[in-house]
Amino acid sequence: MNKKFGFWSIVLLTINGIIGTGIFLSPAGVVKVAGTYTPLVYILAGLFAIILAITFASAAKYISKNGSGYAYSKAAFGNEVGYYVGITRFAAGSIAWGVMATAVVRTTLGIFGGPDAQTQGNITLGFLILMGILLAIVFSGSYITKIASNISTIGKITALLVAVFAGLAIFLKTGQNNFMSINQAVDTAGELIVKPMDASIFVGAILAAFYAYTGFESVASAASEMEEPEKNLPKAIPLAIGIVALIYVSVVSIAMIINPEGILNSTEPVILASAFVNPLIKNIIIYGAVISMFGINIAAAFSTPRIFEAMADEGQLPMFLSKKTKQGVPLFAFLVTASMAIAVPMAFQYNMRGIMIISSVSRFIQFLVVPMAVIMFYYDKNKEPKIETAQKMFFTDVVIPIIAFVTSAFLLYKFSWAEQFSMVNDNGETVTNTYAIWAMIIGYVILPIGVYIPYKMGLYKEKKVVSSSNRSVS
Keywords assigned by UniProt (predicted)? Predict the structure, then answer.
C-alpha cells in the first residue's frame, strides 16, 4: 500500500499539479488580452515554465530531500534563507490549496445548482466535505493517493483531448475558420473586446498565461515518496511541462477556430464548454473540469504538508510535525496544513482575489532563489552536503538558471502590484484591498516570526535520519 511513485506516476502527478481550473474556467482572460496572439502567448509562457522546470529538476539531482524549494534553498544558502523560503512557501501552498478547494466547490455548485446554490453556507459545507474526502485519500497511503492522482490526471487530459479532437472534427466538417474574427468581436456597448496589441499588453498576457503552468515547483516536496527522485524528477518535470504546453496550445487554438465569441461572451461556470454546441461534448468538458479541480486538490493535499515535514526533519519546526502514520503520511503536518487551508478562506469570506497574491509572490521568491541555488551546487559553494554523484552540466546548471533568474526578475517587476492591492467596492469605487494586505502581513511577517523565535531559542529538535546511501545524515 506504500508503493512509491515511479517515473510515469511522477509525470502524471506533475501534470495533475499544473492543470487545474485555468484552462477550463478562464481561457477568456488571456484571449481577451492577446486576441490572435493567444497561441503564441501560451507557447512563450510554456517555454518560460520549461526553463524553470529544468532549473528545479537540476536542483533535484543535487538534493533529493523533501521540501523542493525549501530543501534547495537551505542546502545552498543555509538555515535562514531556507527557513524563510520554506515557511512562506508553506503558507502560500496552504492558502493556494484553500483557493483551489473553494474553486471546485463553487464550480460544482454552479454546475448542478446554479448561481443561487453558491451561498456561503453551501460553500462551507461543500468545503468541509471535500477536505474530508481528501483526508481519506491521503491517509490511505501513497499507493491509493497515486492511483487517485493518476485517474484524475487521465480524466482531465481525456476531457481536454476530447475538446481538441471534437473541435478539429467540426472544423474539417464545416470548413469554417473563425480564428481571425476575434479581433472584430465587440461587447454590448459596441466596443472592441480585444484592444490593439503593444509590448506591455503582450508581456502581461504572457504573465497571465504563465500562471496556468505553475504547480510544478511543488512536485519535489514529496521526493521521499518517489522512486530514485534524483534520477526521475529531472526527466519527469520538463516532460510533463511539455505535455501540458502542447495541450494548452491545442485547446485554445481549436476553441478560437470554431467559436471564439462563445468563449468571450460565456456566462457558464466552465467557459471552455461554451465553445461547443453539442451537449455530449459540453458535458464531457464540464465533468472533466470537475475532475481536474478535484485532482489538483489531491496533488496539493499530497505535496504541501511535506514542506512542514521537511522543516521538522531539519529541526526548524517541532519534531512532532514529521511523525508519520503506518501508511507513511505525516499526520500532524497534514492536519496543520488542512486546518490553514480551511481557516484562511473562511476567515476572508472566500474572497479569493484578496488572498491569492500571497501564493503568487511566494512562487516568485522560489523562482529567484532556486536558480541561484543550482549555480551554487554546480560550483560547490553550497552550505550543506549534496549528492556528490550528481552529473554536472554547465548548460542546465548555470546557463538555464541564469535565464530563469533574469526572466523571473523581469516578470516580478511587471507584476500588477497596484491592481493586487486595490479592489472595486459595491459602489464602483477603487479602494484599498485590505484582504490582500492582511494576507501578506500574516504570510510573510507574522507567521515566519512566530515560528522562527522558538527555532532560534533551540526549542525544536532535529530528527536524525539517513534517507539513502547517497544522502547525508540530516
Answer: Cell membrane, Membrane, Transmembrane, Transmembrane helix
Residue 70 near residue 50, CB atoms below 8 Å: no
Where would I find the H helices in 222-330? 229-258, 260-264, 279-303, 305-313
Alpha-carbon distance of 324 to 295, in angstroms, equals 23
Q: Which three cell numbers stand for residue 377?
A: 551546487
Q: What is the pLDDT of residues 123-179, one digit of tens each?
A: 888 888 988 888 888 888 777 888 888 888 888 899 899 999 999 999 999 888 888
The answer for residues whose C-beta is within 8 angstroms of residue 64's C-beta and 6 or more apart is 223, 229, 230, 233, 387, 467, 468, 470, 471
Q: What is the pTM of this model?
A: 0.80
Q: Please say whether the beta carbons of 351 and 105 come within 8 A.
A: no
Number of H helices, E strands in the chain: 20, 2
Own/partner long-range contacts of 362-365 (Cβ < 8 Å, ≥24 apart): 362/88, 362/89, 362/91, 362/92, 362/93, 362/443, 363/92, 363/214, 363/217, 364/408, 364/411, 364/412, 364/415, 365/85, 365/88, 365/89
Residue type for position 303: S
The grid coordinates listed for 252 are 485554445
Q: Which residues of the chain have pLDDT under 70?
A: 1-3, 21, 26, 188, 347-362, 415-420, 423-424, 426, 461-474
Copy the grid coordinates of residue 443.
Answer: 504570510
| 5, three cell numbers | 511513485
d(CA 281, CA 254): 14
Residue 58 and residue 403 in contact, taking contact as beta carbons nearer than 8 Å? no
Q: Write out the three cell numbers for 287.
A: 465533468
Name the helix (H) or strand (E) containing 422.
Answer: strand 422-424
CA pair distance 382, 13, nearest whole angstrom: 29
Enumerate the H helices of 63-176 as residue ranges.
Answer: 69-77, 79-113, 120-139, 142-174
Handedness of CA 137, 141, 143, 149 (dihedral sign): positive
Task: Determine the length of the chain.
Answer: 474
Domain 7-457 grouped into CATH 3.40.50.2300: no
Contact 108, 126 (CB under 8 A): yes
* Phi and psi, residue 141, nearest 5°: 110, 170
DSSP string, 93-122: HHHHHHHHHHHHHHHHHHHHH-GGG--HHH
Contact 289, 25 (CB under 8 A): yes
Please identify which residue in the block is written with the cell numbers 453556507: 121
Beta strands 422-424 and 430-432 are antiparallel
Domain ranges of the chain: 7-457
Contact 396, 316 (CB under 8 A): no
